[in-house]
Specification:
Blueprint lengths: L2 H27 L6 E3 L2 E3 L4 E8 L1 E3 L24 E6 L5 E5 L12 H11 L5 E3 L2 H4 L13 E3 H10 L3 H12 L2 H15 L15 E3 L5 E3 L4 H14 L3 H9 L2 E5 L6 E5 L4 H4 L3 E9 L3 E9 L4 E7 L9 H16 L1 E8 L3 E6 L6 E6 L5 E8 L5 E8 L2 E2 L7 E9 L2 E10 L8 H16 L1
Helix pairs in contact: 1-11, 2-4, 2-5, 4-5, 5-6, 7-8
């Protein structure tokens, strides 16, 4: 290349460098819009933003059309005997109706559903368990097996759930964890895993009990109607031992002997709801002087499943009040709630990019881009699912591909029913001196050729 050509090349390089640096400076001072429209909503000055709610596309044929007014829309509450009560959708875990459902109360022998499911998950049903002196001295109702005798865990579970024997609960607890106290810790740990924050287990059988924490705080054996329903849902819908749980709790009668064949025992199921209606799936009764009559049950009409939880449902002689409350709540569920399908498009969104080298927005998608997020839920007429976009206000370049961009929350009547996470689908470089120099080198290489 001659001197004239070299001079021209240098002038071009200088010009391009000046242009690049000028653009870099402009990029750092160019005005930014006060608000960006992202996924259909205006984003303001917070780091993370909640977008406008977006309604789902609804399959209207999937729900029986009924003119229903919800309790929260002004309907008169049900007249229930129970101090606390819950009607829950067994499929989704959504509370459909509640009365003081978050009030902490003692729960008596409904406790034993937790004892049973832990024994099934952690124990071997064919193992023999020895009856300790502590177990043998438990108050009635009890199996009455003498201290030192050995009983199969499987048989003890029938004793626990059919007859609600208090001594059998202690034998199971000592077999699983070595002591009542250690088993109570296991129960509380499982409760937290299930999502119960207001449940405290002190005994495996539900007898009224109080204690003091290391900090000197008084606690008692207790739960809420909402969390008791959540625990039963875990037992029947979530636990890997749900089939075994249902087999035991649905059995009418069970007879067995101890390991030596010295004593024979027979148990009859005291959950009368199983005989009252074929729609009863399972349940557990309970009573103590502090708790009153308590009950937890699951019912199904073949398509829809409902869980009913009752705490403080009367004291003697009102033993039958719980059956009245169960009927009212179950009837309410069947009359008001029907399955309906909701579907949302998993949209691609554009998020503002600050100091980007060659773009001012960056694309983000969900984990399932272009697909629909579908839900099939028990809902009352007029209820609609909504999507709330919680996305970053903006990205600061440089940005890597796959960076977290936010999430979409799917809700029904304020309750979370699903979440989708969003991430960037591309990288973005930042305006900088090194970026400009790389561009200059690229241009220089092009002219060199």
């Amino acid at each position: 290349m001659g001197r004239k050509g070299a001079g021209m090349k240098n002038r071009i390089i200088g010009l391009m460098a000046g242009i690049s640096i000028g653009f870099a400076a402009w990029g750092s001072v160019r005005p930014q819009p006060d608000a960006w429209r992202v996924a259909g909503s205006v984003q303001t000055g917070k780091e993370w933003q909640t977008a406008e709610k977006e309604q789902a596309v609804v399959n209207e044929t999937a729900v029986a059309q009924k003119s229903v007014k919800m309790k929260q829309d002004g309907e008169q509450p049900l007249s229930l005997h129970a101090q606390s009560a819950v009607l829950m959708d067994a499929d989704s875990g959504r509370i459909l109706y509640g009365k003081d459902e978050h009030q902490i109360r003692p729960m008596a022998s409904t406790t034993k559903i937790m004892t049973c499911i832990l024994a099934l998950e952690l124990g071997n049903p064919d193992d023999f368990c020895e009856v300790s002196k502590k177990a043998a001295t438990q108050p009635k109702v009890k199996l009455g097996a003498p201290a030192g005798s050995r009983l199969k865990l499987q048989d003890l579970l029938y004793s626990l759930m059919l007859e609600s024997h208090n001594d059998s609960a202690v034998v199971i607890a000592e077999y699983i964890s070595g002591s009542i106290e250690a088993f109570a810790e296991t129960m509380n740990r499982k409760a937290r895993e299930i999502g119960c924050k207001d449940t405290t287990f002190l005994t495996p059988n539900g007898l009224d009990a109080e204690a003091e924490t290391e900090a000197g705080e008084g606690i008692r054996h207790s739960t809420t109607a909402a969390e008791l329903a959540k625990i039963l849902r875990y037992c029947t819908e979530v636990s890997p031992k749900r089939d075994e749980f249902l087999t035991i709790t649905r059995t009418g009668n069970h007879a067995f002997s101890d390991q030596d064949g010295t004593h024979t025992y027979s148990c009859r199921n005291h959950n009368a709801l199983l005989e009252m209606t074929q729609e009863a799936v399972t349940g557990k009764t309970g009573f103590t002087g502090g708790a009153g009559y308590c009950y937890i049950a699951q019912l199904s009409d073949g398509d829809r499943g409902f869980i009913v939880a009752l705490l403080g449902c009367g004291w003697p002689p009102h033993k039958t009040w719980k059956w009245e409350d169960v009927r009212k709540l179950y009837r309410y569920g069947k009359e008001h709630f029907f399955y309906q399908e909701f579907a949302f498009e998993e949209k691609q969104v554009q998020i503002p990019l600050k100091n980007g080298a060659y773009k001012d927005r960056i694309c983000a998608v969900s984990d399932s881009p272009g697909e629909k997020r579908a839900f099939r839920l028990l809902v009352a007429d007029g209820e609609r699912a909504e999507a709330e976009y919680e996305l970053k206000k903006e990205f600061q370049a440089p940005v890597r591909e796959g960076e977290a961009a936010g999430r979409v929350l799917y809700r029904l009547s304020g309750n979370m029913i699903g979440v989708s996470t969003y991430h960037t689908v591309e990288a973005a470089e930042a305006w900088s001196l090194s970026y400009c120099m790389r561009k200059v080198v690229t241009i220089w290489s092009f002219f060199k050729l």
